[in-house]
Write a structure and sequence with these properties.
151 residues, alpha/beta, Rossmann fold, 5-stranded parallel sheet, 5 strands, 40% helix, binds flavin mononucleotide
Amino acid sequence: MDILVCYASLSGNTREVARQVSAHCSARGHRVRLLDVEDTQAVAAAAQPHDRLLLGSWTDNAGRNPAEMKRFVAALHERAGRPPAETVAIFGTGETQWGLEYYCGAAHRLARHFGSPHPVLEIEQMPHGMADTHAIHRWTDSVLQPLGVPA
Ligand SMILES: Cc1cc2nc3c(=O)[nH]c(=O)nc-3n(C[C@H](O)[C@H](O)[C@H](O)COP(=O)(O)O)c2cc1C
């Protein structure tokens, strides 16, 4: 598969999840590119068709997307319209201390916005330990499956 991973990260947590997702895609033999949404090439890259566009974001105030992710999404739509919903899968980091109703809210908003049929991966802050590693690997394997086929 041809996979693009794009992420928004303020302090590095989501970047680390994106790196692990990307590394797992590579380990499975897929062709993968990893870009920060603020990279000057990110919008042009995302505007190209991919088998999967894996988008990750940290969550800002009260479950919202950060400004850099909103800019990226707007620029992507302006340039290329909407990618097919089934090709888009979303991951995010957040903190439960902001309130469970807002936990990883940006990722859930993105999934609704793109109509992604895939599960949303939620990681609390910096991924650490085997549980997070397994969650990242399981999620990556599941979103790379054709829809309807269990990982
Ligand atoms: C101003 C601010 C508001 C935040 N609001 C939320 C929130 O509503 N929900 C949430 O889950 N996390 C919230 N967080 C926590 C971050 O999303 C979390 O620390 C995330 O892992 C940061 O990712 P990054 O290191 O990739 O920037 C907030 C953080 C900041 C700085």
